Amino acid sequence: MVKDPNPKITVHGFNNLTKSLSFNIFDIAYAKTEQHRKEYIEYIDELYNAERLTAILTNVTRIIGANILNIARQDYEPQGASVTMLIAEHETPPSDGDWDEEAPGPLPDSVVAHLNKSHVTVHTYPESHPDNGISTFRVDVDVSTCGVISPLRALNYLIHSFDSDIVTVDYRVRGMTRDVAGNKHYIDHDINSIQNFLTEGTQNEYQMIDVNVYQENIFHTKMLLKEFDIDNYLFGAGSDEFDEASLADIKERLRTEMLEIFYSRNM
Predict the structure, then answer these.
(1) What is the value of pTM for the model shown?
(2) Which end of the chain is more exposed for a tag (fewer CB within 10 A), N or C?
């Protein structure tokens, strides 16, 4: 009989480890005129209003195998929205694969909401540059769970639920739990990199950098879209409305914005 190299831990009572997954997702666009910039903000604000964000978080709870206890949501003036859900661990964890293996979770089209001392939150921040035409939409998402369920299962779904040009992901395991022998455990699953929980297609689309602190169970991955079609970034206009020099300048502005956010410094 072959011994399981990664046997599951039998815990004493409730699993008290807290697993937290945090996202910053950025969508970048170019809006030529002040009116276009205003319309972009209005478009994004309506597309990702509190109702739509609630639907996304509801799917997140289904993916990780949890139950919704309470929902608070709010749309803001002049723009932005927030949703917070208190969730509880489901009696029976999801059965489609082991959550603690380094394998990708489902994408949006494969999603088919019930956690204890856990929550999921989302906040949106649409904004535009006052004079160079760049508009940036930021989404902050936090999924924090206790027990055997893992927020890593929702990784792919969340990235593909938004137009994600730059993604900053943090995953950390905090606290401790005990096994039946009374030994303390500070993590209950193997993880080498957040990247291992992404689909191959997603990995191929993005340039990625890891900053991991293994001894502290802290994992950090930055993602930058490798290629982009300029027509997908022009709001209120098409590429045929610009001459070649103008398009080159717009591309440079967009790329600079992405790189500055990706590296967290101005260029």
Answers:
(1) 0.81
(2) N
